Amino acid sequence: MIVRDFNIEKKTDRRVADQKWESVRLLLADDGMGFSFHITTIQAGSEHTFHYKNHFESVYCISGEGEIEDLATGKVHQITPGVMYALNLHDKHTLRARRELVLACCFNPPVTGKEVHRADGSYALAD
C-alpha cells in the first residue's frame, strides 16, 4: 500500500513547477502502478498550450474556473469543479485559467517526475 500526504509531498522534489503552474506528483513511474497521479495548480490569468504526443492524460477539476480549447477543432469547453476531460487522442490543447485551477491529473504511461515540457508542449517518453 502506498500512502502519501499532499501537504508533505509539496515540500519535496515531487513538487515540479514551471511558468505559472505547479504539480505535486503523488504517484510516479517508479511506484509501479502503471499511471502517475498529480495535483496540479494553474495560476489565474495564465494560458498553457500542451500536446502530450506520448501520453494519455485525464484531468478532474477540484476547484477554480477556466476553459480548454481543442486546437484541432477550435471547440472550447468550460472547466469548473466536477468537470473531467481526457486527452484520449493525444489532443493538442490550450488550457486557460480564469480563476486558479486545482486539478487532479493521471498520466499513462506514468511520468518519472523529471520531465520538462519540450518546445512542442509534450513530454518525451522515459527511457
TrEMBL record:
Catalytic activity: (2S)-4-acetamido-2-aminobutanoate = L-ectoine + H2O
Key word Transport present: no
Keyword Lyase assigned: yes
SUPFAM superfamilies per UniProt: RmlC-like cupins
Highest taxon in the source lineage: Bacteria
Pfam families registered for this protein in UniProt: Ectoine_synth
Pathway note: Amine and polyamine biosynthesis; ectoine biosynthesis; L-ectoine from L-aspartate 4-semialdehyde: step 3/3
Keywords: Lyase
EC id: 4.2.1.108
Enzyme category, top tier: lyase
Function: Catalyzes the circularization of gamma-N-acetyl-alpha,gamma-diaminobutyric acid (ADABA) to ectoine (1,4,5,6-tetrahydro-2-methyl-4-pyrimidine carboxylic acid), which is an excellent osmoprotectant.
Family stated for the protein in its record: Belongs to the ectoine synthase family.
HAMAP family: Ectoine_synth
The protein's name: L-ectoine synthase
Species name: Seohaeicola saemankumensis
Lineage, broadest ranks: Bacteria, Pseudomonadati, Pseudomonadota, Alphaproteobacteria, Rhodobacterales
